[in-house]
Specification:
78% helix, mainly alpha
């Protein structure tokens, strides 16, 4: 389960990196749009897709930080101390997890659209270094995001299982 010492810092780092990458992509793509926009109209669409993804992820990670992780830490504490935990205001941990899994699907759809728009981040022959850097950053970001989702897909079912043993 996520604890204060393992998953939370990674989530905060991912959120900070996502915010930095958002600025890089939005500002960088505006500059690229001016330099390459006539030959590469996909840059504007890519910027819009990434902005939507960034907005989705920001909200998703804040829910993890403000709802899910504090509750799972309470569950871990209750299990460790063999005490019951009162039912949370959201009913069961499965409720926010269901929403987060749908958000994973939405993020995946946006990533697929970004890959389609960029021909799998294929760098065009006339791409400047900024264009190349943008595509490389997006590819790395996607890999990191898939890792985050993979970890969530392991942790989420554990949270549901743990809840069954500690909620009264």
């Amino acid at each position: 389960m996520p604890t204060k010492t393992n998953h939370r810092p990674a989530v905060l780092m991912a959120l900070a990196a996502s915010a930095g990458l958002t600025v890089l992509i939005i500002v960088g793509s505006r500059n690229l749009d001016g330099a390459h926009g006539q030959n590469h109209p996909e840059i504007a669409e890519l910027r819009d897709l990434f902005k939507a993804l960034s907005d989705e992820l920001g909200a998703h990670m804040m829910k993890e930080e403000s709802v899910l992780f504090p509750y799972t830490i309470q569950m871990e504490d209750a299990a460790r101390n063999r005490r019951a935990l009162p039912r949370p205001p959201f009913g069961t941990v499965a409720n926010p997890l269901r929403m987060m899994m749908l958000e994973h699907e939405d993020a995946g759809a946006l990533l697929r659209q970004m890959r389609r728009v960029t021909a799998d981040y294929t760098i065009p022959p006339d791409a400047c270094i900024s264009y190349q850097t943008l595509y490389q950053a997006l590819d790395a970001f996607e890999k990191d995001l898939h890792q985050h989702i993979h970890l969530d897909n392991i942790l989420f079912p554990r949270a549901v299982e743990m809840e069954g043993g500690v909620v009264s």
